[in-house]
Amino acid sequence: MIFTSKIANRAALSALALSFASATAPAFAQAPAGAPRQGWFKVCTKQEDNDVCIVQNLLTANNGQLVTAVGLITVEGKVNRKIIQVSVPSARLIQTGIQMQINGGKAAKLDYAVCMPDKCVAEAPLTDATIAALKKGNEVVFTSVNFQRAPNPIKISLDGFTGVFDGAPIEQSKLEERQRALQEEMQKKAEDARKKLEDAQKAAKQQ
Predict the structure, then answer these.
(1) All domains of the chain, ordered by start, with CATH?
(2) Cα–chain-centroid distance for residue 156?
(3) Burial label, 137 (beta-carbon count in 10 A; 0-12, 13-18, 19+)
(4) 33-154-55-163 Cα dihedral, nearest 10 degrees
C-alpha cells in the first residue's frame, strides 16, 4: 500500500507540474539552439489541498518555439514534494536522461519521467544542496542527447535566480501581460522571417 501510494503521489505531482507548466508557456516542438533567455519567474497556485509554487525559466528559439523549460516545483499541504523538472524537444535518447551541470561542476542525471509527441520531461528530487548550488552559481547547463546520439547542451543564466526563488510569485495580471508581450514578440519575429523569405524569393526571380 505504501508503494502504491508513493507511485500515485508521484504520478499526480508529475501531471500537476506538466499541466501547470503548459498553462504558463506555449507548446513546443523541436527547435534549434540559440534561444533568447526569457528569465526566471515564479508562479504559485492552489491545487485542492496543496499549495504549489514553480520557479521557471523558458528558453524559446527565434521562431517562438520552446527549446528548454526548467521548473523547480515545491508542493506543500496534503502532498509535500520538491522536484526539478526539465522539458526538452522529443526524439531524445532515453537512457542518457538529461545531465545537469551547475557552474561546470559534476553533472547530475535527471531521468525521463514521460515523453509525449512534442516533448520529453525529466525530473529528479529537488534537494537543498541543489538549490544552494543554483543560488551560488552563474549558469546551469542541461544536456540531452538526440536520436542521432548528438549531445544538445543548453546553457541557462542563473542571473536573478535567488531573488525570484526567495521572493513573491508574479501576480496573475503581470503574468498575463508577460505572456501577451511574449506572444507579440513571437508574432513579430515570425512576420519578419516571412518577409525576409519573400524578399529573397523575389530577388532570386529577378536574377
Answers:
(1) 2-91+108-138+159-199 (2.60.40)
(2) 10
(3) middle
(4) -110
Beta bridge partners of residue 110, listed in sequence order: 98
Q: pLDDT of 47-96, one tens digit each?
A: 888 999 999 998 877 766 769 999 999 999 998 999 999 999 989 999 99
**How many CA atoms within 13 Å lie on the side-chain side of 84?**
22
Longest dimension (CA), the chain: 74
Contact status, residue 84 vs residue 70, Cβ threshold 8 Å: yes
Q: Can you give the pTM of this predicted structure?
A: 0.70
Q: Name the grid cell of 190.
A: 515570425
Output the DSSP codes for 5-29: HHHHHHHHHHHHHHHHHHHHS----
Is 142 within 8 Å of 99 (Cβ atoms)? yes
CA angle 125, 157, 173 (to 5 degrees): 80
DSSP string, 98-133: EEEEETT---EEEEEEEE-SS-EEEEEE--HHHHHH
Q: Counting runs of H as helices and runs of E as strands, what totals does the chain give?
A: 4, 9
